[in-house]
Predict the 3D structure of the following.
Amino acid sequence: KLHHGKLVNASVTIDSPQVILAMDYLFALKSFFDASFEKKQANVTEDETTSREQNPSLPATENNSSNTKLQYSLNVVNAAVIMLADPSDLYSEAVMFNIGQFLLSDQNITSLCANNVGMLLSKMNTEDKNQVRLLEEFSSSLVIDRRESTPEKLLTNVQISVEPMVMGISLRDIRLAMLVFNRVVSQMNGT
């Protein structure tokens, strides 16, 4: 409830984003950023320790509270995440994770909806008829309602809904998944 203050309402819609992931390159980027942030983190920690020793009356954190309420809505339509088995092969097998609509909103009630979620196995640069559906499309939702809460009493109503999920996998699909999984584990271990 907002008695005095500002109300900010933000709404973002993203249409048809597609992300193609090659695990080799993701782990190379991760190690690059980890190495650079470790150096910065060590320098920041030394600077904070030095400044507190010189002036112990400085507070550790400052708390600035305001009467601004943020309401937001994020709508992502026709999203796809594609994980390649072998990034060097133009016709590599890939696992495609599709979401028809993803909606996250917080406007007095927090809600998260994912419609037409599915997963399929495909070869890159080939026709759609070669696709094998691993996970049939389903929808799910999560609603969190805190409107009845007061500073003295916390009352939260949570509702979760998931349609039945149907998976269809073969021995070939399991072998491909194990190949990708083993590759990810070897990259994580740095071998």
Q: What stands out?
A: The first strand starts at residue 6 and ends at 15.
